[in-house]
Amino acid sequence: MSLSWGAIVCLGLGLVFVIIEMFVPGFGFFGITGGALLLLGIFLAARNVTEGLILTLIIALVLGIALVIILQFMSKGNFKKLPIILNSSTSKEEGYIAVEDLKDLLGQEGEALTDLRPAGAADFDGMRMDVVSDGEYILKGQKVRVASVEGRRVLVKPVKDAGREAEASKSTEPNGDSV
Fold it and tell me: Where is the NfeD-like C-terminal domain (predicted)?
C-alpha cells in the first residue's frame, strides 16, 4: 500500500464529511459524500483492486465490531442517562393515552347536552362526548344514537320516538291521507 497525496486528501475529507454528517441534521449529503471519499481514498492507497476490496472489507468489519462495543458500553452506566437513549415510556399506567378506541360507542343511545347544529356534545352513560350530526339540527335533550365512528369523530342521528311513529302511522290512511 502506497499513500499518495490524493489518497490522503480523499481519506481526510471523507472523515471530515462523515463527522459533519453526525452533527449536522440533513438528508445525508455529507455522509454519502464522505463515505464515497473514504472508499476512493482506500482504493487510491491500494496497489490493486483486490487489495482495495480486502482493505474495505477489513475496515467495515472493524467499524462494525467497534459500533457493537460502543453501543454495549453506552447502554450501561452513566451513558444510559444521556439524551440519545430513551429511558422513559408512554404507558397507560403513567397517564399517556393515544387516540381512544371509540368503536364500542357504535349503536349506543345518549342525550344531546347541547343543540347539535351540526356539532355539539352528548352524554352516553355519564360520558360526555363531542359529537356531530350529519347536517340535521338536533335539539338539546333529544335522544341520539351513534351511527358511525371515524377516529375521534362520532356521528350521531336522532332517535325516532317509537310512540310517535306508531301514532303517526295510525293517523294516516293507507293511501297517505290524514284521518
Answer: 104-158
